[in-house]
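Thread amino acids onto this structure.
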């Protein structure tokens, strides 16, 4: 039996990591809940965001926190371009076509990443001296604490945007009923463009944050896509609060699992949670099945 101090440290580390998982999953949940497409390239958008932060840090010495904002802007523009150039032609034409397009895009991004950036794992350094803040028997490491706080701010900012801005309200209206939104004068095509931009921007932000904690390679996209799926299923599609709770639960579950069973089972834990929740409560812990944003 591991000592209590170690278990507490693992729990805290899992909670702090879960915040980043929630950011990644929120982008996937938004796109699925509003556009009704499964973005299979979401994990590879995360990979691009991570490499933006890594390259800015390695080549120009720019802190990854600033690199994260650059990644957000670039991925937002990439998401909007993706919707205008590719997905606009296939969204609404059935579930298969967007999946095929996005699966192909994921493979292309992974191959380009391997060719251009190589297969070696790379990471960034947040640059804060010292190990962290001691809180009783628990150490809150600076990288995990800072990335968690930034992740929560991003989630709350996205929630506030959806709740209190005209564009956010148009996005929510479109998620509830696209045809009714059109009758009310909402440009649903523009809503889709903005939604995919926000979804990919959140993936890019999550990637930049993860680059401060873990090594990144061009092959991490599928793994983080699976984690994002697990969080969305756990929290419920369309629920911002559920996504945050789902991310925290997944982070804790992964860390406890690696403590007792070894570090090679992280993805197995994510996939197991994904399957169990689908079977037991397919609408998730907070989902209502209606696709409404909270």
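Threaded sequence (294 positions):
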């Amino acid at each position: 039996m591991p000592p209590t101090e170690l278990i507490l440290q693992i729990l805290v580390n899992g909670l702090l990591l879960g915040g980043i998982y929630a950011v990644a999953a929120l982008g996937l949940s938004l796109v699925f809940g509003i556009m009704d497409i499964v973005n299979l390239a979401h994990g590879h958008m995360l990979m691009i965001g991570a490499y933006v932060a890594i390259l800015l840090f390695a080549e120009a010495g720019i802190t990854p926190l600033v690199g994260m904002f650059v990644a957000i802007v670039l991925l937002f523009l990439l998401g909007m371009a993706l919707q205008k150039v590719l997905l606009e032609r296939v969204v609404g034409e059935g579930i298969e076509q967007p999946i095929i397009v996005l699966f192909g895009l994921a493979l292309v991004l992974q191959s380009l990443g391997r060719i251009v950036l190589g297969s070696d794992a790379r990471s960034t350094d947040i640059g804060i001296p010292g190990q962290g803040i001691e809180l009783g028997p628990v150490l809150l490491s600076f990288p995990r604490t800072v990335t968690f706080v930034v992740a929560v701010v991003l989630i709350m900012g996205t929630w506030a945007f959806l709740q209190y801005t005209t564009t956010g309200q148009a996005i929510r209206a479109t998620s509830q009923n696209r045809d009714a939104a059109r009758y009310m004068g909402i440009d649903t095509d523009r809503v889709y463009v903005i939604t995919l931009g926000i979804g990919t921007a959140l993936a890019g932000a999550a990637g930049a944050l993860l680059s401060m904690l873990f090594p990144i390679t061009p092959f991490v996209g599928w793994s983080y896509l699976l984690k994002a799926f697990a969080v969305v299923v756990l929290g419920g599609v369309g629920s911002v609060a559920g996504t945050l709770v789902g991310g925290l639960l997944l982070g804790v579950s992964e860390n406890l699992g690696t403590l007792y069973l070894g570090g090679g089972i992280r993805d197995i834990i994510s996939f197991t949670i994904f399957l169990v929740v689908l079977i037991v409560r397919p609408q998730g812990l907070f989902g209502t099945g209606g696709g409404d944003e909270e």
